[in-house]
Design a protein that fits this description.
mainly alpha, two-stranded parallel ribbon, F-box-like_dom_sf, F-box domain-containing protein
């Protein structure tokens, strides 16, 4: 069954041995490799679809990702916890946020505890032309 006539035919066993699948550890390398060369603008757009809490956690992936979240066009500060983030944590996030213009800014504060911060958050949103 070898390629006696020169027509390129190879038995299925020969093909299967040449195209081995990657091991489980190698598969994630391929995915990481594909994200490595994306421009920051595309990464920021992808992160803008995530809650900000999750987008911020991507900063541990690599040195390059450390500040990508801070230029996303959207901030959604609604923690997965039932009461949301505390005012001082929100202020730290806003201090690290670098985008000059935002498309959207969503915030679900705990009104009783965060009342002293609300004016600052409104000024922040207005300064980004939300």
């Amino acid at each position: 069954m070898a390629d006696e006539g020169g027509n390129g035919y190879k038995p299925p066993q020969a093909i299967a041995t040449k195209t081995k699948t990657k091991e489980a550890g190698d598969l994630s390398d391929g995915v990481e490799y594909s994200f490595r060369f994306l421009p920051d603008e595309i990464l920021q757009t992808i992160l803008s679809y995530l809650p900000t809490q999750i987008a911020i956690t991507t900063s541990i992936l690599s040195k390059r990702w450390r500040h990508v979240w801070s230029d996303t066009p959207c901030l959604y500060l609604d923690w997965i916890k039932p009461y949301g983030p505390k005012g001082d944590i929100i202020n730290k996030i806003l201090d690290r946020y670098k985008a000059r213009k935002m498309m959207s800014f969503k915030l679900k504060p705990n009104m009783r505890d965060d009342f002293p911060y609300i004016d600052r958050w409104i000024v922040f949103a207005m300064s980004r032309n939300v």
